[in-house]
Amino acid sequence: MEFNDPALFPIHEKVTSGERLDFEDGMTLYHTNDLLGVARMANLVREQKFSRDTYFVRNQHLNYTNVCVNRCVFCAFSRDMGEEKAYTFDLSKAEQEIRTRLHEPIREIHMVGGLHPSLPFSYYLDLVRMVKELRPEATVKAFTAVEIDYFSRLTGLSLEEVIKELQGAGLGMMPGGGAEVLSERIHRKLYPRKIGPDRWLQVIRVVHGLGVPTNATMLYGHIETLEERVNHLLKLRTLQDDTGGFTAFIPLAFHPENTRLSHLKPTGGIDDLKTVAVARLLLDNIPHIKAYWVMITPSLAQVALSFGADDLDGTIVEEKITHMAGARTPTGMSMEEISHLIRSAGYHPVERDAFYNPI
Ligand code: SF4
Prior knowledge:
42% of the residues lie in helices and 13% in strands. The protein contains 14 helices and ten strands. The longest helix is centred in the middle third of the chain and has 18 residues, at 226-243. The structure holds iron/sulfur cluster.
């Protein structure tokens, strides 16, 4: 393999011999201008694992409330109770949302929301039960480590008890949000009321230990340094060595509009693509790397398939969180649109369930 940057040769050696990359390698990958060199290495690993297969899922997002006690600095979605545009679905409204798409063969219901000050834990259990009853064939993928910690504090139950109750109601999997960037510095500055890096890792360890798989994410493109990004990825990799519970990693490009960080510039295409590739190369033990088209646009997500991504997330309908932060992307895509996006990039679309079993 040819590289414009000689610093990539030793990394290529490691990649081809299956040797694990380290912190310095991660920094070299981020600092190099040889974007296509990085892409070729990431694509090599992607094709070894998945050939030209590219996964997607027919899914539905349900953001049941945007009322949140945390009010993180980077969040455009959350509101205080009673504030303009604050909303909370009661169970019948949530049911109505699920029923509107019962005619579609949806395999995954993705549910996250704010930390509501007064909804009881029974609301969340009823929500999961309702969805599972209406959609027995779909996986309920709901709540992040942040909510699990909140439910535990709300009820006085241990983390284990909370998770077991949710599992009993029908929870099958959890998304990967809430870690943002696993750094105490960023925690203090951007999300001081939310759980910090150590607690996030601790909660996920318990979740995985009880057999609930999760995804992992990284919210990048705000005040974090490249060192903090690489450290974040390595912390995820270390936990994955112990638990094996992460299914996919999803880089989340920060959208500053409508947040208290609106003076920041949004991420650019080079950074978005490089972050996908660095994740593919550093996270040798997390199988799937997702290009989340809602955040980086469908066109760039398509290009990311050649930078190590093997998953385009899903059809999604009514995505709210990123769109309240000014995303101009569609709020959903049809099955035909997503398949076309994959095929026209030279890849093979594979419809999957929440656990990556082909359908
Ligand atoms: S990011 Fe999550 S926890 Fe933070 S304010 Fe928004 S909804 Fe609440």
